[in-house]
């Protein structure tokens, strides 16, 4: 089976460097052609795929009207990688946030959102600045004298993931849509600079009820009102760029349970990734056999590649550093259609979710770029 390449278009990792270029930060280039401004906010709506927005344009008329182009988020199309792209201006092959879960050599499999071992949720003594040591976009802005503000859920203010990809920003914790809008507009009004704001709940409802479900649509309508409030309140000369970290698909009954599939477990010492894209870490000398077994078992339901093949296909960006390379599986399985590789015993919560993401389908890879100027 021929492996897919990433779409040839703008990447989520280009958004913040493009904003910083308009604000005069050295070394940044406005590759996305964002308008000149006296301050800008990048608002990330977790889980808002471009195809989902087009399919529900009547429920989000403001966003649909502003979304003139799309971006690719790269692989894996998941939140940790997307936040890494925003926070470093680089793809996963360099920032190293290689999935929802991924192996850090010598430490085991890390859940990037909880910063605990996976599965099992045991404590992991991992310094966020060791896991992701590259300068963040917020640090680069601050070093250039540009104010950098993060408007995000107050619960996440001191988490390791925040320290890994958002350090250097002035973190302003919020609790709901109302104070997210108020704090974002305050950041844009108070001084020329860069603001990053994040909204998570559309993704949460997509996981729980499915993308396009009634609950998801009702949340999308509220998100559109939130964006409308931000657009209406933009001070003169300020810019709002709305993006997302991934899209989403609803799994169907073709899924397979890794925990109950001995043909997939043979030769595998650890499993990471998301249900839609799995990092398969093999026992010494077992890579070829595992690759063959996964290809035979999953068949047309997934693209199954060796690590070298996935890197050569550009799945993780134009460059993969030696530091990051071992975090990607010896074998990588990226789901097609509505397929997924679950772990009903080891990952009962994740396996119960209807909506999933992480793979290379256009429904997951493509996100809107919606831009407004005050």
Automatic annotation (TrEMBL):
Alphabetized GO MF terms: hydrolase activity
InterPro entries: Alkaline_phosphatase_core_sf (IPR017850), Phosphodiest/P_Trfase (IPR002591)
Designated name of the protein: Alkaline phosphatase family protein
PANTHER family linked to this entry: BIS(5'-ADENOSYL)-TRIPHOSPHATASE (PTHR10151:SF120), ECTONUCLEOTIDE PYROPHOSPHATASE/PHOSPHODIESTERASE (PTHR10151)
Protein source organism: Amycolatopsis endophytica
Signal peptide: none
């Amino acid at each position: 089976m021929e492996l897919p390449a990433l779409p040839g278009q703008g990447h989520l990792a280009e958004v913040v460097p493009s904003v910083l270029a308009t604000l005069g930060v050295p070394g940044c280039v406005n590759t996305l052609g964002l308008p000149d401004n006296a301050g800008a906010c990048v608002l990330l709506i977790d889980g808002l795929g471009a195809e989902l927005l087009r399919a529900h344009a009547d429920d989000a008329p403001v966003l649909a009207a502003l979304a003139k182009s799309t971006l690719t988020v790269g692989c894996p199309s998941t939140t940790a990688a997307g936040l890494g792209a925003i926070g470093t201006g680089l793809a996963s092959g360099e920032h190293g946030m290689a999935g929802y879960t991924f192996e850090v050599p010598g430490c085991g499999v890390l859940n990037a959102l909880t910063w605990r071992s996976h599965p099992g949720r045991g404590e992991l003594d991992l310094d966020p600045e060791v896991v992701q040591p590259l300068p963040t976009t917020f640090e680069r802005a601050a070093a250039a004298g540009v104010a950098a503000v993060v408007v995000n859920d107050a619960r996440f203010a001191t988490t390791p993931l925040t320290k890994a990809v958002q350090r250097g920003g002035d973190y302003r914790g919020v609790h709901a849509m109302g104070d997210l809008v108020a704090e974002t507009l305050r950041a844009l009004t108070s001084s020329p600079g860069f603001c990053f704001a994040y909204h998570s709940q559309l993704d949460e409802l997509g996981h729980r009820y499915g993308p396009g479900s009634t609950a998801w649509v009702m949340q999308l309508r509220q998100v559109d009102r939130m964006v409308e409030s931000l657009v209406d309140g933009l001070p003169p000369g300020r810019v709002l760029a709305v993006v997302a970290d991934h899209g989403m698909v609803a799994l169907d009954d073709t899924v397979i349970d890794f925990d109950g599939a001995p043909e997939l477990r043979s030769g595998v010492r650890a499993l990471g990734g998301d249900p839609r894209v799995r990092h398969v870490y093999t026992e010494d000398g077992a890579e070829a056999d595992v690759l063959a077994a996964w290809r035979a078992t999953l068949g047309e339901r997934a693209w199954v590649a060796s690590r070298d093949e996935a890197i050569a296909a550009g799945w993780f960006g134009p460059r993969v550093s030696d530091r990051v390379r071992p975090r990607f599986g010896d074998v990588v399985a990226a789901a097609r259609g509505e397929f997924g590789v679950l772990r009903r015993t080891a990952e009962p919560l994740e396996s119960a979710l209807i909506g999933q993401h992480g793979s290379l389908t256009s429904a997951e890879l493509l996100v809107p770029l919606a831009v407004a100027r005050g």
